[in-house]
């Protein structure tokens, strides 16, 4: 029983990583129909933000550097997203497949940029001491960094829910997503809402990047490892639905770690993918479906 | 803005414009392909390297991944090769000529490696190529070098079972690294139960096959064997399996990136190095720098060279490397092997008096060089070099202290012919 | 049948001129290149020609069918592995000998059942087409029936290619994982893959296959089916309301693209670097394939061919000239062409032609202008 419980915990923690990286996408892809392949590179730059802060503040201020990098990465990645939106993506609304290819080009450039700025080698991000080690509860080994990521995923999802569901800004975002023309006609400045949404979605990628520094090393290829998984979460969850994304991330995380346990790591991934294809047979619009979709 | 709609008419007009399109294509293809082939002689298939030393410089190729997933490891190796070339040039070059490196990007893509190797040989007419890191890239270029009778110097420890007449192997083969590490575990650490963890590719698979044969002959129990996909950062499952197996030690053949996640997750599961020793054969100083010394402090590694290896040759090398690339950079085994490769080639060329491949091969037989790792000798037969095995422990500065050393350099034995237990390893044509 | 034959007979002047161009290009590829290029360059060109075959399929499915196929690496890889397995067996003298990597890994005692049939060259060659087509038909039926389209379809195919690469990497004992299948000596139909004279024959075969594939694809798009495909691309629901099965139409295009990718893959292992490994089938190579077609002009078959050959040639040259910075060029090409010149080379060609035939005509749009610059 213990191994299964441990696997379940591993699944939940993997699921919360998926949720963190997919959350930004539920905004940009889900709400705006923009397929941003550079999302992974925003995650990467978020991770590098942590590294830079840590170098600037010195090795004895690790905790501050880490906590401070959460908001700063949000701004850095958000600003990069904003720049991308204003220069390229706004030309491509209504051409979702083209945004995919263009942002892939952007991703290539950003990867090379990271290589030229920070070097081709991976860099070390020191973990705060309070994130090292772990506790064992009922035979389940829970690493503190994993617990932290689960907590962070919960907190950010809650914050995103408040923004989208309760604030004026969120109402405008939903209005534009559901019917752009009507929203525009009702006096909403749609280009401005687009920019804000894109800022938020990209910024969340940066925050996810900060969390990921606690799991592995930070390097120019960091983003590519996560991007497809993130898209699958959004598709399975249903476009633009936070609730769907949460369920999908957890389900995929748990399925992945169980499949991995009973087969092998490689086969586990393939099993998960097959499950997704089968699932979409029955619910092509995802777990949570909306009445109208922006994309056809 | 809305350009998609235009396609309907595009298709209707298809036959009118595909003509023009093809014209444009031909013209540009002509121009583009033409520039590459201008300098090529029409006689191909014969030995092309004889022209390498005509002119004022001698060209050599450097073929590593500067982009893609492998750039992380290979960039430092390129730096080492450039440094060696620079030093040799400063000292007057070879045969009185300066060495001119031609750098190509293998882009972590095996077909690209083969294409670029071909280009270096037949168009740049390089005298030798220093290149490759992964076994996959080496296997991809091997036929190219053998067919063109050109030289490759390969600077990374690998799984053995190969001895191409046109490749010089300056990294360790298994009997210079893995077998000494196993003996160390058995004799010094009294390990009885060993767990094998590796990335899922040819080096860990072959290494673990050898380890299992060795363990059988030496009465060690293998408690598990797990492989993670290359580049994987999810190790919860494997860590759970390691924990459940109650092993004395772990033999780790994970590749680069994955190590960070693996060590972090082991630590999180309450298995620090003091409780469960791990011997790694793919973590060197350069990787430690990225992982963070505090996470791997006290872990055991097996190589042939460390930055701390004593000797005047190494002091000079480390100093030169840091002066060239910055004080924060470190040297390690593959970096040193790449540096040695360039010197071995240069010495052989000086000895042969020409860059002609066959003569350089002949001059390399028994060639000795005072390398940073100590004196190395090129083997007459298999073109590997002798190497001293060194077991080290990672210290808190991220450097590695030698704790055990083989009695002098070990002769390379890529096919493990001198080990009776390894009978099952030798391939048919070995 | 007569209409089929008739469709090859030119009906007007522009048809005649396009026929002439086809002959000119054929002469270029079959005689000029071989006479002019060195052995190794011609071998490299042969691998670009196999890419062009893959690109034809993408132009059909994406440019004309509106389905962004981001997982062509899957079908390319299937075709390539089928033939690669045959070559690996030839290298060791045929079954029941084990391919070299299996002996090295010691993973298998006897030849696995999966490998057995690939000892036969005809089986290997036909499997290289049949397997991708069958898989695409099944997947396509499932996907299109549940009306998964647009970006959903693109990301699904992309994930498919990713999963295939992971599956290959994970199966080291069966198909040599990351290293893939490579031979240092092998032959097919008595043609050695490593002898320059035989390589030239293989080049000619590859070019002829491309020519045939081009003509057949062109007929396919000119037929009634081609018009239906366009209709589905531009207004799928309307086609459905008119009583056609949009699913069937799309599946045919998807399967054709898969088949062409399989043919390209099967030929790919015979020329150039002669390697097939997961590095050529995953997500990144699959996207790269789409970019060739985007550069060429997504709906144009000739553009697709031109794009595949030019982009690869350019990348080879630029990465040699600036090995540290060429990724910037590649990224810029992506962004420039797709964002500013969606009609690619073909668009540039149209613009040029229009400019020549009707001076100052009104249809010179800004997009095609930038297309020319990007080209």
Helix count of chain C equals 17
Strand order of the largest sheet of chain C: 1-4
Please identify the oligomeric state: heterotrimer
Rg of chain A, Å, rounded: 19 Å
Number of domains of chain A: 1
Q: How many strands appear in the DSSP assignment of chain A?
A: 2
Report on the architecture of this protein:
- In chain A, 71% of the residues lie in helices and 3% in strands.
- By secondary structure, chain A is mostly helical.
- Chain A has one domain (2-227).
- In chain A, strands 1-2 form a two-stranded antiparallel ribbon.
- In chain A, helix 1 (2-31) packs antiparallel against helix 10.
- Chain A starts with a helix and ends in a 14-residue tail after the last helix.
- Mean pLDDT of chain A is 84; it is low at 292-296.
- Chain B is of the alpha/beta class.
- Chain B has 14 helices and 14 strands.
- Chain B has helices spanning 7-12, 14-37, 71-90, 110-122, 135-148, 174-187, 202-218, 236-245, 256-268, 285-291, 293-296, 312-325, 333-352, 357-364; strands spanning 57-64, 98-105, 129-131, 152-154, 167-169, 193-199, 221-228, 249-253, 278-280, 300-303, 368-371, 374-377, 390-394, 400-405.
- In chain B, helix 4 (110-122) packs parallel to helix 5 (135-148) and helix 13 (333-352) packs across helix 14 (357-364).
- The model of chain B is unreliable at 1-23 and 29-51 (pLDDT under 50).
- Chain C has one domain.
- At the B-C interface, helix 1, helix 2, strand 2, helix 4 and helix 5 of B face helix 2, helix 3, helix 5, helix 7 and helix 9 of C.
Short description:
The complex is a heterotrimer of chains A (296), B (430) and C (375). Chain A has 296 residues and is mainly alpha-helical.
């Amino acid at each position: 029983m213990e191994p299964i419980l441990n696997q379940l915990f591993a699944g939940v923690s993997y699921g919360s990583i998926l949720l963190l990286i997919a959350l930004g996408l539920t905004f940009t892809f889900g709400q705006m129909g923009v397929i941003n392949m550079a999302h992974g590179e925003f995650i990467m730059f978020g991770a590098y933000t942590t590294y830079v802060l840590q170098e600037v503040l010195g090795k004895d201020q690790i905790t501050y550097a880490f906590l401070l990098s959460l908001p700063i990465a949000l701004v850095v990645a958000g600003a990069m997203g904003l720049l991308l939106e204003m220069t390229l993506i706004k030309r491509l609304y209504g051409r979702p497949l083209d945004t995919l290819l263009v942002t892939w080009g952007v991703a290539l450039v950003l990867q090379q940029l990271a290589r030229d700025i920070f070097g081709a080698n991976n860099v070390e991000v020191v973990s705060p001491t309070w994130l090292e080690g772990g506790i064992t509860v009922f035979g389940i080994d829970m690493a503190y960094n994993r617990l932290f990521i689960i907590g962070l995923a919960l907190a950010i999802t809650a914050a995103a829910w408040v923004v989208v569901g309760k604030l004026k800004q969120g109402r405008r975002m939903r209005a534009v997503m559901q019917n752009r023309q009507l929203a525009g006609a009702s006096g909403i400045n749609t280009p401005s809402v687009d920019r804000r949404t894109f800022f938020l979605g990209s910024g969340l990628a940066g925050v996810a990047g900060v969390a990921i520094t606690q799991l592995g090393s930070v390097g120019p290829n960091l983003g590519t490892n996560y991007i497809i998984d993130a898209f699958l979460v959004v598709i399975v969850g249903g476009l633009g639905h936070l609730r769907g994304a949460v369920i999908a991330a957890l389900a995929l995380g748990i399925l992945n770690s169980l499949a991995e346990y009973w087969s092998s790591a490689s086969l586990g991934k393939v099993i998960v993918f097959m499950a997704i294809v089968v699932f979409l047979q029955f619910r092509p619009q995802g777990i949570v479906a909306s009445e109208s979709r922006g994309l056809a | 803005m809305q350009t998609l709609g235009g396609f309907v008419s595009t298709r209707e007009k298809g036959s009118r414009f595909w003509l023009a399109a093809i014209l444009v294509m031909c013209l540009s293809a002509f121009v583009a392909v033409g520039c590459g082939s201008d300098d090529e002689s029409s006689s191909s298939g014969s030995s092309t390297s004889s022209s390498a030393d005509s002119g004022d410089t001698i060209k050599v190729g450097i073929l590593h991944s500067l982009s893609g997933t492998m750039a992380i490891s290979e960039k430092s190796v390129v730096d080492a090769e450039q440094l060696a070339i620079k030093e040799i040039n400063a000292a007057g070059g070879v045969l009185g000529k300066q060495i001119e490196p031609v750098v190509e990007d293998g882009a972590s893509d095996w077909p690209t490696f083969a294409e670029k190797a071909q280009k270096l040989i037949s168009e740049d007419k390089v005298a030798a190529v220093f290149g490759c890191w992964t076994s996959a890239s080496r296997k991809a270029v091997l036929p190219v070098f053998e067919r063109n009778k050109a030289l490759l110097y390969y600077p990374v420890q690998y799984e053995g079972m190969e001895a191409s007449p046109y490749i010089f192997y300056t990294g360790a083969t298994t009997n210079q690294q893995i077998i000494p590490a196993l003996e160390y575990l058995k004799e010094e650490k009294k390990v009885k139960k060993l767990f094998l963890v590796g990335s899922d590719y040819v080096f860990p698979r072959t290494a673990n096959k050898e380890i299992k044969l060795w363990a059988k002959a030496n009465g060690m129990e293998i408690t598990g064997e797990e492989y993670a996909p290359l580049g994987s950062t999810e190790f919860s499952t494997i860590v759970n399996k390691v924990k459940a197996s109650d092993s004395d030690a772990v033999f780790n053949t994970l590749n680069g990136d994955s190590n960070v996640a693996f060590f972090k997750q082991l630590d999180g599961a309450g298995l620090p190095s003091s409780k469960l020793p791990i011997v790694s054969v793919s973590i060197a100083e350069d990787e430690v720098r990225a992982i963070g010394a505090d996470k791997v402090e006290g872990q055991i590694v097996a190589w042939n060279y460390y930055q701390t290896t004593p000797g005047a040759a190494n002091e000079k090398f480390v100093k030169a490397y840091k002066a060239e690339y910055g004080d924060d950079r470190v040297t390690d085994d593959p970096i040193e092997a790449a540096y040695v490769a360039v010197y071995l080639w240069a010495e052989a060329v000086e000895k042969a008096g020409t860059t002609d491949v066959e003569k350089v091969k002949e001059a390399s037989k028994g060639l000795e060089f005072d390398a940073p790792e100590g004196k190395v000798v090129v083997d007459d037969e298999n073109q590997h070099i002798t190497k001293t095995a060194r077991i080290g422990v990672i210290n808190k500065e991220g450097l590695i202290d030698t704790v055990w050393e083989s009695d002098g350099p070990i002769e390379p034995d890529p096919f493990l012919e001198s080990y009776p237990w390894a009978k099952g390893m030798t391939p048919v044509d070995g | 049948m007569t209409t089929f034959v008739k469709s090859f007979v030119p009906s007007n002047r522009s048809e005649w001129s396009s026929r002439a161009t086809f002959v000119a290009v054929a002469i270029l590829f079959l005689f000029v290149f071989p006479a002019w290029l060195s052995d190794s360059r011609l071998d490299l060109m042969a691998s670009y020609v196999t890419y062009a075959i893959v690109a034809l399929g993408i132009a059909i499915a994406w440019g004309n069918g509106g389905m962004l196929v981001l997982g062509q690496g899957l079908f390319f890889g299937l075709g390539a592995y089928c033939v690669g397995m045959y070559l690996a067996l030839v290298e060791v003298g045929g079954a029941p000998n084990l391919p070299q990597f299996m002996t090295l890994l010691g993973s298998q005692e006897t030849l696995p059942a999966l490998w057995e049939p690939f000892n036969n060259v005809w089986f290997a060659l036909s499997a290289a087409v049949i397997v991708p087509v069958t898989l695409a038909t099944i997947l396509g039926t499932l996907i299109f029936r549940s009306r998964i389209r647009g970006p959903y379809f693109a990301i699904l195919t992309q994930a498919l290619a990713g999963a295939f690469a992971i599956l290959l990497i994970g199966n080291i004992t069966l198909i040599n994982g990351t290293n893939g299948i490579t031979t240092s000596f092998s032959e097919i139909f008595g043609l050695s893959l490593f002898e320059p004279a035989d390589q030239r024959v293989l080049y000619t075969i590859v070019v002829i296959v491309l020519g045939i594939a081009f003509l057949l694809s062109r007929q396919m798009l000119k037929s009634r089916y081609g018009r239906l495909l366009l209709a589905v691309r531009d207004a799928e629901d309307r086609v459905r309301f008119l009583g056609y099965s949009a699913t069937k139409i799309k599946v045919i295009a998807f399967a054709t693209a898969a088949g062409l990718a399989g043919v390209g893959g099967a030929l790919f292992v015979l020329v150039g670097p002669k390697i097939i490994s997961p590095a050529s089938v995953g997500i990144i190579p699959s996207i790269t394939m789409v970019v060739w077609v985007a550069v060429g002009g997504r709906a144009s078959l000739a553009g697709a061919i031109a794009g595949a050959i030019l982009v690869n040639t350019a990348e080879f040259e630029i990465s040699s000239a600036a090995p540290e910075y060429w990724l910037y060029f590649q990224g810029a090409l992506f962004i420039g062409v797709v964002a500013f010149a969606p009609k690619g080379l073909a668009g540039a060609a149209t613009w040029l032609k229009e400019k020549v035939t009707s001076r100052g005509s009104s249809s010179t749009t800004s997009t095609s202008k930038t297309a020319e610059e990007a080209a």
